[in-house]
Amino acid sequence: MFADPRIAYLGPTGTNSETVAHRFGERWERPQWLPTSTIAQVLHSVAQGEADYGVVPVENSLEGSVTTTLDLLWRLPDLYIQQGLILPIAHVLISHCSEMNQIQRVYSHPQALGQCQYWLEEHLPHVPWLPTRSTSEALQYVQREPAAAAIASPRAAELAHLPVLAVDLAADNLTRFWVIGTNPHRQGSHTTLAFSVPENAPGALVRALAHFAQAGINLSRIESRPTRRSLGEYFFSVDLEGAQCQPRIAQALAALAQETSCLRNYGSYTIAPVEMPAALAE
Hints:
- The chain is of the alpha/beta class.
- The protein is built from nine helices and 16 strands.
- Helix 1 (16-24) links the parallel strand 1 (6-10) and strand 2 (32-36).
- The two termini are 25 Å apart.
- The protein folds into two domains: 6-88 and 175-273, Periplasmic binding protein-like II (D-Maltodextrin-Binding Protein, domain 2), CATH 3.40.190; 92-172, Periplasmic binding protein-like II (D-Maltodextrin-Binding Protein, domain 2).
């Protein structure tokens, strides 16, 4: 492992992923930053050894899970969660238009558009939403289209020297990020795993989850995702409170392995809040 690691994240400059990546990278003197065009590229860069760590969003308080992250972790081998980080998300509307009625298109990442849907439906009900690969990428359209607007962070607007037309587009907005690496951890406050059951039969999922209930282990998140192999075939992604080094959790995981056809243990980790900085150096 490099003394100063390579850290991949969804770019370009000004994204919330970059903010979290810089916060995680503060522990090293000179980390190498690797902005990518998609969340998938972040995870592939770690899996292929091109990055030591990847910072990816996994869950938003308004829009729910980031399914790309969950699905790729299931598919890519030997990736583990190193840390969880929670970032307050501030979305602003960025445009050269001086009035709302001048806006003809709104660009942003699909997650940001979903998080701001109620504001958009109230203030721009007839304006189409156009997806981009990141919130910062949406600013490119504002720079070349006079009637365009973008949803991005205040920092992205400042870095691009673009005017902000409206603020606070989505209240109580938090996103949880995972730092992904190749080193499995056994200690922390949470453990994440994913599994599939041998057959789609009554009680199969209940039998698998019963081991956690019997051990008094709280599940803070559980959801199903398609395996992409057959219609109706799913895997289950689960967060539980506690570390796998604890005997009761270790025993529950061993029992779970007997009930599943495939079990992926992404490791144990801690979760910490990230304060939104006023600005970050480029």
